[in-house]
Write a structure and sequence with these properties.
single chain, 156 residues, mainly alpha, 60% helix, rod-shaped
């Protein structure tokens, strides 16, 4: 048994498209502007800023700030309290400030601890709306945390 022989078809030449010559482009204008501004920056005199002394918050300033944060938006409520409750509220507020200061001074600030301290202090007000208490406590906690961040950055 013999295998049939196949003949190769003759090669046909396929016309190859001729590439068009590449034209050189002129440099783009936007880079020219960049180079001009780069030269202007190089020739400009360096600006010297005076050294600012490091300002650290003292313990008294931190205490005052915390007191201001806690007393904010409570003036009318405080005025409406009876005299004996005003004294208790103020005393508890001072204790809260001291506790918050202790929490802030630690390396790891515990947010829930600050929030709980503020809530306990605000619960002394009789007839306070629960939602108002929550909102005020959260706002005051956020402000105290911002103060703590500011104090830590200034100490560095």
């Amino acid at each position: 048994m013999e295998f049939p022989k196949f003949e190769k078809p003759p090669k046909q030449e396929v016309p190859v498209p001729v590439a068009e010559p590449i034209l050189e482009r002129a440099p783009e204008k936007k880079w020219g502007k960049f180079k001009e501004t780069e030269k202007a920056v190089e020739t400009a005199a360096p600006v010297k800023t005076p050294a600012t002394p490091r300002v650290t918050l003292t313990e008294e300033e931190i205490t005052k700030e915390i007191e201001n944060i806690l007393s904010e938006n409570l003036e009318e409520i405080y005025q409406g309290l009876p005299q004996n409750l005003k004294e208790q509220f103020k005393r508890k507020g001072d204790e809260t400030v001291i506790e918050i200061k202790k929490v802030i001074s630690k390396t790891k600030v515990i947010v829930n601890k600050i929030l709980d301290l503020i809530k306990k202090w605000l619960k002394m007000i009789s007839g306070i709306n629960h939602f108002f208490l929550e909102q005020e406590a959260k706002r005051k906690t956020a402000r105290v945390l911002a103060l703590a961040e500011r104090a830590k950055k200034k100490k560095l």
